[in-house]
Amino acid sequence: MQEKEEKYIQLYKTQDKILDLVAKENLDFYLTGGTALQRFHYNQFRFSDDLDFFLINNGIKNHTPKEFNDFTSMLQDNNIDFEIKVSNQYFTQLYIKENNLKIDLVNDYVFHEKNDYVKLENGLLIDSIQNIFVNKLETSISRDEPRDLFDIYTILTNNKMDIEKSFDILIKKTNIDPKDIINKLKNIKIE
C-alpha cells in the first residue's frame, strides 16, 4: 500500500505542475472528471491518475483548436517532456513522461450550465459537482468502471443532488434515456 501511495504522491506533484501552468497561462480549459472531483471537491476519497481538460469556449470545429496547440506549446516552453498519442480536431491525448501522466484535451459540443465552474485560488477553473455528476451518470451507460460508480456514490452521499435537474441536464447533453441509467444502477451487483 505504501508503494501505491508513494506513486500517487509523485503523480500528484506532476499533476500540480501542469495545473499550475494551465492556470498561470490562462488557457481556455476547465478541469473535469475524477481528478476535479476527488482532488478539489472531496479531498481524495480515491486516487485519480489523469487530467481531463475541456475547452471553455467549446464547439466542434473543422480544425484542431488553437488551444490544443497552446497547451503543447506551454509544455515545450516549460521543458516538459511529453508524447502525443492521439490528435485530431476533437481530442488530443498526451502523456507527460514524468510519472506517465495521461492528459486528455477535449473539444466537443457539450451542454454546460452557464458559468457552472469553480475558480480556484490560483485561477484554475474546475467543473461543478453538478456537471461532473451528470457526466458520471452518462458514462455509467457506456463503460463499467468501478471508479465511475464510486464517484456517483461519493457525490450522492456528500451532496443533496437534484436528480430531476440532473436528468434534465443529461437529456440536453445526450440522447440517453434516464430510465436506462436507473435500470443500470439498480442492477449493479456488489461482490
Automatic annotation (TrEMBL):
Domain of life of the organism encoding this protein: Bacteria
Protein name: Nucleotidyl transferase AbiEii/AbiGii toxin family protein
Species, as recorded: Campylobacter coli
Classification via InterPro entries: AbiEii
Taxonomic placement: Bacteria, Pseudomonadati, Campylobacterota, Epsilonproteobacteria, Campylobacterales
Pfam name, any one: AbiEii
